[in-house]
Amino acid sequence: MRNHLRTFTLLAVLTALFVGAGYMIGGATGMLIALLFAGAMNLVSYWNADKIVLAMYRATPVDAGHPEPLIRNYVADVQALAQRANMPVPKIYVIDQDQPNAFATGRDPQHAAVAATRGLLTMLDRREIRGVMAHELAHVKHRDTLTMTVTATIAGAIGALANFAFFFGGRDEEGRPTGLIGAIVIAVLGPIAAGLVQMAISRGREYEADRTGAEISGDPAALASALQKIEAYAKGGYFNPDAERNPATAHMFIINPLAGGRQRDSLFSTHPATHNRVEALMSLAGQARTAVPERRATAVPVTPARRLGPWS
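The structure corresponding to this sequence follows.
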């Protein structure tokens, strides 16, 4: 309930930012133009969000008839977890990336998809994979992708208004221009504020998905172990070129896929600190987590990581 209340509050803040920026820049007319412009762009994204994101990562659909046993087990587990969560089985995809990670997309449970990288399927054991996919199904069940779409729509409108500010400038209460300085302030601070709200919503949703995912799988410790392994491999240097080309999608993954992306509970992070998520999950499991400093924590053997950068 607290996370849902936080989401509604942050959406209200975004709306207030949008209305305020629109009034300062061009009054009701400027606000309406920006709303129509951003709304048209995001309407297309809303109806085709799953197809767009899956195409970005060249995800391949898989089913129970796949020739690889590893993939068949993955499909079977997603289907079983969806049935346990009393929700439609989403479309299931595999991404040909070494970095272990996963995400969910789609506007509602009836039009959802989950995707896991090959790195996740090969580096985690089956119990941990189930924990990760239960987390992703929790995002679908909570309609988190819909929430983020609405947020992106409003934030995009704020960005559009900020761009208009450079051309039209701000206006005072009587409709008089406030000058170039006011326009620059709006153009700079508007998108930053909107971005911070988006990040805060994403962090809150991750905690909620961890909790519900643990309930779906019935194994909080498995998800905790998976999060530690995924972060350890990410710090080891596994490079995700598709994520680097599309940084706006980073919040969708269970762990930040961007190079150098740190997991921390701060204004500028898209994901919560992994050690905080692990502690919350272990408390659900009723187990005591061994205290290890965050920078040195590793749930997997440290091995040379293969970096797939553009110059390799």
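Confidence is low (pLDDT under 50) at residues 288-312.
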